[in-house]
């Protein structure tokens, strides 16, 4: 891998996009490498995934503008699909994902962060969808996920004006869960990942799936999605152990599945 590093710390995987010369911009190769790393994550032993960018200036400064500059219509569509497929894989990844946004999250950078379950950012983070200023629309899910996260009005304002917002504004509109000093960001993400990893893995995964799938359907179908997720946890070792521990006034010493 040239542009991605992947490490694990206990149950937590850390994927770092590392292309500092272009502020970690996403070209086809970077997208391909992210895809490969996701496929290779050991899901038996990994319970949360952190995604971040190398350095303290940029998370991801967008899709690679140099690569996109000469594309034809068909190639543009194919490039959008390539990113969308990878980001959808990330969004539906079986375990929770946390974007640790350590600087610029523009265009494809904002979009990849929105494909994660949770966004934490550094005080110097900048979010935006500058695409219309380049003569294109957002193309890695920005027209869809931003509206779902912050509401259509704010999403339309951000996309039409191509104005960037700073960390405090991203927090105010609910685009990020929390803001930290740059030096504390990764530790904060690791702490949150460790908290997630302490809980019953089957239940955490089923919760993620239920939230994601429920958001795509109406409420009558959504509660059925939840019923299935809820039911699927029963008879698991963790469900038995978790409830038995409560009833015996003890704590589970490490969930297994
Ligand atoms: C390619 C990029 C890049 C990008 C930065 N670089 N962003 N290369 N694609 N998205 C490169 C620069 O060309 C430069 O290379 C080096 O990184 C450092 O960037 P500078 O501009 O010199 O840094 P700075 O002045 O600090 O400005 C930082 C910045 C600016 C504000 C983030 O780089 C910027 O505006 N970048 C583009 C942001 C953007 O428009 N993103 C959306 C892209 S469209 P050299 O070789 O000159 O040193 C998109 C569409 C997604 O994401 C959907 C696709 C289907």
Automatic annotation (TrEMBL):
Keyword Chloroplast annotated? no
Keywords attached to this Swiss-Prot or TrEMBL record, sorted alphabetically, are:
Lyase
**Documented EC number(s):** 4.2.1.150
GO BP, sorted A to Z: fatty acid beta-oxidation
Q: What class of enzyme is it?
A: lyase
Molecular function terms from GO: 3-hydroxyacyl-CoA dehydratase activity
Q: Note the Gene3D superfamilies from the entry.
A: 2-enoyl-CoA Hydratase, Chain A, domain 1 (3.90.226.10), Lyase 2-enoyl-coa Hydratase, Chain A, domain 2 (1.10.12.10)
Q: Which PROSITE patterns match?
A: ENOYL_COA_HYDRATASE (PS00166)
- Where does the secretion signal sit in this chain? none
Q: How does it assemble?
A: Homotetramer.
Family membership: Belongs to the enoyl-CoA hydratase/isomerase family.
Name of the protein in its database record: short-chain-enoyl-CoA hydratase
This protein's species is: Anaerostipes caccae (strain DSM 14662 / CCUG 47493 / JCM 13470 / NCIMB 13811 / L1-92)
The lineage, from the top, is:
Bacteria, Bacillati, Bacillota, Clostridia, Lachnospirales
């Amino acid at each position: 891998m040239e542009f991605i590093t992947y490490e694990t710390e206990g149950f937590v995987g850390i994927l770092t996009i590392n292309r500092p010369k272009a502020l970690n911009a996403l070209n086809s190769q970077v997208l391909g490498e992210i895809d490969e790393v996701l496929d290779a994550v050991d899901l038996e032993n990994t319970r949360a995934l952190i995604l971040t960018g190398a350095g303290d200036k940029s998370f991801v400064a967008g899709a690679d503008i140099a690569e996109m500059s000469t594309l034809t219509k068909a190639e543009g569509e194919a490039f959008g699909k390539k990113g969308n497929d990878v980001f959808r894989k990330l969004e539906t990844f079986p375990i929770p994902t946390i974007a640790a946004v350590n600087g610029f999250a523009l265009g494809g950078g904002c979009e990849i962060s929105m494909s994660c379950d949770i966004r934490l950012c550094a005080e110097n983070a900048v979010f935006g969808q500058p695409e219309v200023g380049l003569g294109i629309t957002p193309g890695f899910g920005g027209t869809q996920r931003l509206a779902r996260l912050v509401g259509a009005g704010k999403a339309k304002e951000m996309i039409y004006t191509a104005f960037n917002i700073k960390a405090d504004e991203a927090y105010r509109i609910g685009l990020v869960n929390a803001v930290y000093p740059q030096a504390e960001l990764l530790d904060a993400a690791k702490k949150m990942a460790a908290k997630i990893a302490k809980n019953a893995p089957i239940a955490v995964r089923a919760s993620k799936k239920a939230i994601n799938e429920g958001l795509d359907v109406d409420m009558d179908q959504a509660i059925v999605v939840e019923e299935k997720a809820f039911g699927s946890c029963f008879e698991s070792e963790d469900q038995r152990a978790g409830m038995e521990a409560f009833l015996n006034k003890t704590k589970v010493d490490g969930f297994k599945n």
